């Protein structure tokens, strides 16, 4: 007689595919990221991709089983950390990691404070990007336990950031956009504020941080 139970025991269940939603408006970046991570984990990885925040929100709504969202900061329909804010507001349970060429310490700190699961700099060595994405996909407890040294780049203490912490929410949003390279007009359109109001906010930022010009302000965070 054939032992059916023994036969079943020898058959391993197929591993569940991990799902990564890659949100970046540069097709070449998306292609390169997928190629880099083709052998990221032993289990298969299903890649979903889009170039806009609006479509990313729709994809996640239709596929709540997505393990990680890799979100670029500057998309056609959002600038700076607004995309992260909007995504987590719509899907607070989502595991969203920022994927950006920006390595500004202020932006990294703000992303973490807003609830990002990690921050993956595009300029990092390929092996480092692979390690961080693997930790995000598999829930690497060792990497997560290292905090800023694991899923976020290290950020040394600086008195400038203590002063920034005292600013209001709207000031912080505008500072994020200034550091992302946005002009006053672009900030005005993005935040639906008058150009005069934006100029007032920028002037208040210069005064609060004791700097004389916009370029001086940007240089402090780079």
Describe the structure.
The protein is globular, with a radius of gyration of 21 Å. It contains twelve helices and five strands. It is α/β, with parallel strands linked by helices and 222 residues long. α2 (27-36) links the parallel β1 (18-23) and β2 (45-50). 29% of the residues are buried. It has two domains: 18-149, Rossmann fold (3-Layer(aba) Sandwich), CATH 3.40.50; 159-220, Orthogonal Bundle (Arc Repressor Mutant, subunit A). α9 (169-179) packs across α11 (195-208). A five-stranded parallel beta sheet has the order 2-1-3-4-5, sandwiched between helices. It has helices at 4-9, 27-36, 53-62, 82-90, 105-114, 126-138, 141-145, 159-164, 169-179, 184-191, 195-208, 214-220; strands at 18-23, 45-50, 68-71, 96-100, 118-121.
Helix-strand layout with pairing:
Elements: H1 4-9, E1 18-23, H2 27-36, E2 45-50, H3 53-62, E3 68-71, H4 82-90, E4 96-100, H5 105-114, E5 118-121, H6 126-138, H7 141-145, H8 159-164, H9 169-179, H10 184-191, H11 195-208, H12 214-220
Parallel strand pairs: 1-2, 1-3, 3-4, 4-5
Helix pairs in contact: 9-11, 10-11
Number of DSSP strands? 5
- Classify the fold: give the CATH topology of the largest domain: Rossmann fold
| Uncertain residue segments | 1-7, 141-149
Distance between the termini: 73 Å
Whole-number count of domains: 2
The portion of residues forming beta strands comes to: 5-15%
Question: Could you name the key traits of this structure?
Answer:
single chain, 222 residues, alpha/beta, Rossmann fold, Arc Repressor Mutant, subunit A, 2 domains, five-stranded parallel sheet, globular, disordered N terminus
């Amino acid at each position: 007689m054939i032992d059916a139970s023994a036969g079943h025991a020898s058959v391993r269940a197929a591993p569940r595919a991990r799902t990564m939603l890659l949100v970046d408006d540069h097709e070449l970046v998306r292609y390169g990221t997928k190629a880099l991570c083709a052998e990221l984990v032993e289990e298969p990885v299903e890649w979903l991709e889009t170039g806009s925040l609006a479509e990313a929100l729709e994809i996640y709504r239709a596929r709540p089983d997505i393990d990680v969202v890799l979100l670029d900061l500057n998309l056609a329909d959002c600038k700076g950390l607004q995309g992260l804010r909007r995504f987590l507001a719509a899907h607070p349970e989502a595991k969203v990691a920022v994927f950006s060429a920006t390595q500004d310490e202020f932006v990294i700190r703000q992303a973490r404070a807003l609830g990002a699961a990690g921050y993956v700099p595009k300029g990092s060595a390929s092996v480092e990007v692979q390690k961080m994405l693997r930790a995000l996909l598999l829930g690497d407890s060792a990497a997560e336990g290292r905090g800023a040294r694991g899923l976020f780049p290290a950020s040394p203490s600086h008195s400038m950031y203590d002063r920034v912490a005292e600013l209001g929410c709207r000031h912080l949003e505008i500072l994020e956009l200034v550091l992302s390279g946005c002009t006053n007009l672009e900030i005005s359109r993005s935040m639906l504020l008058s150009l005069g109001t934006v100029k007032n906010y920028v002037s208040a930022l210069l005064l609060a941080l004791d700097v004389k010009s916009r370029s001086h302000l940007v240089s402090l965070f780079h």
